[in-house]
Amino acid sequence: MTRKAFRGEILSVVHDPRDRPDAVRHEADGLLVVDDGIVVARGAYADLAGDYAHVPTEALTGLIVPGFVDAHIHYPQMDSIASHGAQLLDWLERHIFPAELAFADRAHADTVAAAFLDELLRNGTTSALVFPTVHAHSVDALFEAALARRMRITSGKVLMDLGPEGLADTPLSARTETEALIRRWHGRGRLGYAVTPRFALTSSDDQLRTAGGLLAAHPDVLLHTHLAENVLECAAVAARFTESSHYLDVYDRFGLVGPRSVFAHGVHLSTHACTRLAESGAGIAVCPSSNLFLGSGFFDFGQADAYGVRIGLGTDVGAGTTFSMLHTAGLAYQAALGRGYPLDPFRALFLATAGSAALLHIADRVGGLEPGQEADFAVLDCAATPLLARRTAGASLAERLFALQIMGDDRAISRTYILGQCAWDKAAAAFPTCD
Ligand SMILES: [Zn+2]
Predict the structure, then answer these.
(1) CA of 73 to the centre of ligand 1 (A)
(2) CA 31, CA 190: separation in Å to the nearest integer?
(3) Cα(393) to centroid(ligand 1), Å
């Protein structure tokens, strides 16, 4: 057994501060003790130092927080980030589908998967729910690269039998390929599987039914798709599925709405949809940078809270404009305020860590740095830029955290640890465990 300890300022928010006033856990001078990658003790250094005096201890400068959990991101779109001039449906046709066609080449998928996971690590993100492409080997490429980095990644082949030429599968191939991928990958290392229909418009009724069957047959995999992102998309869904009373109801009729369902966006939700989301236990991955970039709108935090809808945070790269969950938290604040809701910085940290982990059903493993959890964490640098240093000098914890969210990005991640091992070191510009 390898035991080591980390000393520094530690902050985590395991519960939603909206529900629990004691949700914030903070040690100004803390100690985190890790056995073989698992947290075994955490507390004030003064309280624990005696018990762990002989454990090799690394002093970390900065704010130690749980590794970020990105609840919605597309790895094949990382090189399409910042593509100009179109809302969702046009943007998919013009920029995204051509880029995803290139993933027919396994070597291309391998190259992008490696760069993608490294970029997550550079941004302090240690777990993610990821869209690959329709190609089964795009899942293999991602999972192999994640296994090598020991990251907690959930993904699943995209189902899209109504997709454009070269990107369309069939209900039958969707079923057989998904079944094979679940057998090959689900539960291996830290990997998990998600049945992943792209969205309602890119699958036939037959294929949506197939997705529901897959979900029913595999009670521990997730369902990952998009919901009510853009007004033109919502109109097209309403025009095709005339028997459904609202967008979520389309998925519901095919058995795709339940506690294991993660829906990205949910910008345009009816009250019926919110009621059904809350009673089913399904969650929304809120993606503010993407919603701003594609002109989709602002997620309604007030409405979600009023109905008790579970939420987390996602970047949604490549419609999202950043891999940084810090920056995404800052944009969530701005999007929420646009609808009159002042998002608390501790709640934003919760959504970016334990909240997203709960959506992904991995909150028992990551997101809180609690004893028994895996030691995935990021070290935030409040002096990453001269202006950030000025703004945070002498500031309270809440002020520093908020400044990091509004002004911070990958520059503010000085280190990222996976299972207690440094996996990104900004000062050395190195990925030590991967070298
Ligand atoms: Zn997306």
Answers:
(1) 6
(2) 25
(3) 37
* Reduced 3-state DSSP string for 41-106: EEEEHHHHCCCCCCCCEEEEEEEEEECEEEEEEEHHHHHHCCCCCCCHHHHHHHHHHHHHHHHHCH
- Tokens 């997550």: give the residue: 120
185-196: pLDDT as tens digits: 999 999 999 999
Distance from C-alpha of 311 to C-alpha of 71, rounded to nearest angstrom: 9
Distance CA(409)–CA(129), nearest Å, equals: 20
Q: What is the DSSP letter of 157?
A: P
42 within 8 A of 428, measured Cβ to Cβ:
no
Distance 86 CA to ligand 1 centre (A): 15
Residues pairing with 417 in the sheet? 377, 422
For strands 377-380 and 413-418, give the pairing.
antiparallel
Half-sphere exposure of 292 (CA within 13 A, CB side): 17
Residue 434 has pLDDT above 60, yes or no: no
Cα 83 to averaged position of ligand 1 atoms, centre (Å) = 15
Task: Quickly list DSSP for 162-191.
Answer: TSPTTS---HHHHHHHHHHHHHHHTTSTT-
Strands 38-44 and 24-35: antiparallel
Instruction: Give the tokens for residue 389.
Output: 């240093």
| Tokens (6 digits) for 110 | 């391998």
State whether the Cα torsion 287-289-295-298 is positive or negative.
positive
Query: Residues with beta carbon < 5 A to ion ligand 1?
Result: 264, 316
Query: Angle, nearest 10°, between helix axes 136-149 and 106-122?
Result: 40
CA of 164 to the centre of ligand 1 (A): 17
Specify the amino acid at residue 133: T
Which residue in 399, 371, 284 sits closest to 12, CA to CA? 371
Q: What is the mean pLDDT of the chain?
A: 97
Cα–Cα distance measured from residue 178 to residue 176, given in angstroms and rounded to the nearest whole number: 6
SS3 159: strand
State pTM to two decimals: 0.98
Tokens representing 28? 């100004």
